[in-house]
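ingest -> fold -> write
write: protein_1
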Amino acid sequence: MTTLSGKTALVTGASRGIGRAGALALAKAGAQVLVHYGRGAAEAEAVVREIRAAGGRADAVATDLAAPDGAHKLAAQVRRIVGDRLDILVANAGISKTARLEDTTVEDFDTLFAVNVRAPFFLVQQLLPILGSGGSVVLLSSLAAHAAVGALAAYAASKGALDTLVRHFALILGERGIRVNAVAPGIVETGISNFTKTEAGRDAALGMQALKRLAQPDDIAGVIAFLASDEARWITGDTIRVDGGSKL
């Protein structure tokens, strides 16, 4: 059984969706969890209350990761709370933008890369002093990084960049005993996949999957907790597809 007792963890974008489920899974396994949010303070505080009600330890931390210094500010908050040791970083916060190539603006493109790529990059950099041997970094990739899915070219490029960072980070941090992996979900029934609320959208999603149901955040959270644990101690530099057999 996965156990993270005595571990400290930061989950970005943890007020809802996959981030929320990941934070709850890490806390259930025994970790102290910092629940990051950019917006949605009430939702983040609800996650903290749920963890505490179950006997766990949690705090909410707020930072706008789209800002140039967002990762730096978040790292400073984390260090004030956990001190000199962070064991688990789950860089889940991300945004999506559905747009045809001809309709994608420079602002859209830059914001996607700011949140989805720049923030995780500098968050790892800024947390290095407190990420020690045995630590685990989990980035959130996507099915869109390795399969053409809808009008998501800029978003897919940002997730493809994360897959590249996984390999480089794993090599760089391996000497420190820190593992770096990514989880690549397919279509998950969250706010970011509103199209699944229509019958046509659900049919389209199910049509590309071997398993014929829509994924829930908990389906992804268990893999995040596994990668954060010692059970995954010999896995690094990899992107794990958790997509129900999508686009086979």
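write: protein_2
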Amino acid sequence: MDLDVLPELLQYKRLVVELAKELWRRRNPDRERLPKNFEDSLALRFYEVRGNCVTIPLERAVAADSNIQLWQAEDELDDAVDLVADTIEAAGKDQTLPDAFPKQLLQLFGDYGRTLRDDEWIEHKLARRNVCVRYDKAVQRNLTRWLTGSYQDSIDVIGEVTMARVSRPRMALQLSDGREVEAAFRPEDEDLITTALKEHTTARLRIVGRGQFSASGQVDRIVDVEHMSLLADGSVGFDVSVKAIWDEFDEVLADVSDKDLSRLPVDAAERHDFYLHGQHEAET
């Protein structure tokens, strides 16, 4: 491991500690100050560096005279570790910022991953959950995008039509989370829109196009409609003429011998990058 990446460990600790403090404040709104020595109690240490993929097991240090019972030691720090991983996972999948993550702390991700090159990453493997998430430059850019402002991206949304205006054609679509987004529509889609509005209790409209997203990753409005379709019963239909994926698998495997199948690694799902690209994984 290059010594230049050691600041990443310090920034990660700062990130989870600041998040743990904010979680405590949220859970104790009647308390003006953090408990005495609260930050000092959030001590993270490592006692070894494991080889090959440079694994650094981070451990929580609890003082021997602490009032915390070891079997009850899970607190805001543990929750902060999980929430950081959930936020990284959401950014990696182009999902929205988790509601529980305080937006004002997103700036801390700006310095986390500063030393990483484009072909490097840090993996977070959680002790409390069977979860492993990857933090790389692409994830960092998504997190920074959430912080810096709105942006446009492709959308594929389904919702209930709650408003339609024929003059200067415009409509409102209520999404599954209850939020409404507006979009202009073409005159040729007027019948489709008015039908969706008339039958809004059961019908749903699907829109594919581009949307304006907030910094937190939520769509604010639809800026361009490429295609829209009416789902009469609210469900997404499928093309019965398309070959099922398991049939595709059967066709591919038909030409693979049992001998070749027996040579496949049994842990490929866990170490797919290693087998596909020969890359070692850096973990924290």
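write: annotation protein_2
Residues 203 and 232 are 4 Å apart (CA to CA).
Residues 3-148 form one domain.
pipeline exit 0
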